[in-house]
Design brief:
Elements: E1 9-14, E2 36-39, E3 45-49, E4 52-55, H1 87-96, E5 101-105, H2 114-117, H3 122-141, E6 151-152, H4 159-172, E7 176-179, H5 197-206, E8 209-213, H6 228-248, H7 251-254, E9 259-263, H8 269-283, H9 296-303, E10 304-308, H10 312-315, H11 318-321, E11 326-328, H12 342-352, H13 357-371, H14 382-385, H15 387-392, H16 404-413
Parallel strand pairs: 1-5, 6-7, 7-8, 8-9, 9-10, 10-11
Antiparallel strand pairs: 2-3, 3-4
């Protein structure tokens, strides 16, 4: 396959929310209580909501920075590549990277909506959460039909409100919701609990995807003197912990239509886990688990989509894993992201694994589109959706190294960058 002929859907990217995001989505009486940006004396930004102060983490928006500037150090919108928070610039960067469509996880709200789920005033939090979903679906995704796969966050502290919001966002066009990997880490019941059954049932009825993005469950990794390297490498193993609750609990067996996307966890854990769960099930029948005529690995495959950024060794086992459950992610604008050469990076891995052109198409876009019920060519014809066609629209997009200081100078000279809608 030629790079220019590829179609790319990234099932895992991120949005750094713009400062004005609530402007058009809240009644005036709530505006002074909404999350808002405060600039500190060093010119760094932090979101403030209730009594929480949430610094903007540099590592979440490093695209185009020199690597010596990467880190967990605080940053500001002014120091970021505008595609991190400005939807118009994001689409230009997607074009340069040959990416047709993207699913964007939250930043300020937490990858799974934790900011609002742990707020003190739950009535107010529900107002803000719904406004967040409206901004994401109507404004961010709605600005460029055909370029984003809408998702939503949920008020999981109230199951009735959760199901109601599920139905509302599905009506608005959401294809997925992002959920905690390990809700018990936040003090909610685990996925073993039948308290989640109304959620699982509604997800099946609405044919939505339950996304479990690494990050929320990191507190389950309780090691003495743990450092950033350990956290960043071991974070993928939180995905394995989340799988256990859903597989050995009742969720996957009681709700056969439940669809779960494991986001940013890679695919390397799958071959090991398939072997391990099947061997355990066959050898330890005294525990009373019953998968009927199926093996646990078969049940897991039926429910799951897993995505990768760079798993060249694991991809060589794609036939054993199952070609239909593997998807691709770019992770823009995080430190792992593949920009601006995502097509080349994916193609090199696929060719190294011996994938056919048909296999590459499944990985690069078909599996994600099928799983999310997303027609990638409903708005944009296939001839205009290829890597080559998209890049042809982005010849003027700068791809070189640009420092934080230079981005700040440009930001201050061009206020257009500061808003989502300018």
């Amino acid at each position: 396959m030629k790079t220019d002929d590829m179609i790319l859907i990234s099932i895992d990217d991120h949005v750094v929310e713009p400062p004005d995001m609530f402007r058009a989505h809240l009644p005036a009486r709530y505006m002074d209580q909404a999350p808002h940006i405060v600039h500190d004396e060093e010119g760094k930004d932090q979101w403030v909501y209730e009594d929480q102060e949430m610094a903007m983490v540099g590592l979440n928006a490093v695209v185009s920075w020199p690597k010596e500037q990467w880190g967990f150090n605080p940053t500001a919108h002014a120091e970021m590549r505008p595609g991190a928070y400005n939807v118009h610039e994001r689409v230009r960067d997607m074009n340069r990277n040959g990416v047709l469509a993207s699913m964007c996880f939250p930043s300020m709200a937490g990858f799974s909506g934790r900011t609002f789920q742990e707020a003190k005033d739950k009535d107010l939090a529900l107002v803000m959460l719904k406004a967040y979903n409206d901004w994401h679906i109507d404004e961010w995704c709605g600005a460029y039909p055909g370029r984003f796969i809408p998702q939503a966050i949920l008020p999981i502290w109230d199951m009735d409100a959760t199901v109601t919001e599920l139905r509302r966002v599905a009506e608005k066009g959401a294809r997925a919701v992002t959920m905690p990997e390990l809700p018990h880490v936040q003090g909610f019941p685990s996925y073993h609990s039948d308290s989640w059954d109304p959620f699982f049932s509604a997800m099946c009825d609405l044919d939505l995807v339950m996304c479990l993005h690494i990050g929320q469950g990191l507190n389950a990794i309780n090691l003495p003197d743990i450092n950033f390297d350990e956290y960043m490498v071991l974070s993928t193993q939180v995905t394995v912990l989340a799988v256990q609750d859903l597989l050995w609990g009742h969720a996957m067996r009681q709700f056969p239509d439940l669809k779960i996307a494991f986001s940013e966890g890679g695919i390397g854990w799958l071959p090991f886990l398939f072997d391990r769960v099947d061997r355990h099930y066959e050898n330890q029948r005294w525990t009373g688990q019953d998968f009927g005529s199926k093996r646990p690995s078969e049940v897991l495959r039926e429910h799951s989509l897993a995505c990768f950024i760079a798993d060249p060794t694991s991809l060589k086992l794609y036939k054993e894993i199952g070609i239909d459950m593997i998807a691709f992610e770019v992770d823009y604008p995080h430190s792992d992201c593949l920009w601006p050469e995502a097509p080349e990076a994916l193609l090199a891995q696929c060719e190294g694994a011996g994938c056919s052109d048909e296999d590459i198409e499944k990985i690069s876009w078909q599996n994600a589109a099928r799983f999310c019920r997303w027609d990638p060519f409903a708005v944009i014809p296939r001839s205009d959706a290829t890597v080559g066609a998209l890049r042809a629209q982005a010849q003027d997009v700068e791809t070189g190294i640009v420092s934080r200081e230079e981005w700040r100078a440009r930001y201050e000279a061009k206020p257009y960058y500061a808003t989502a809608s300018a």
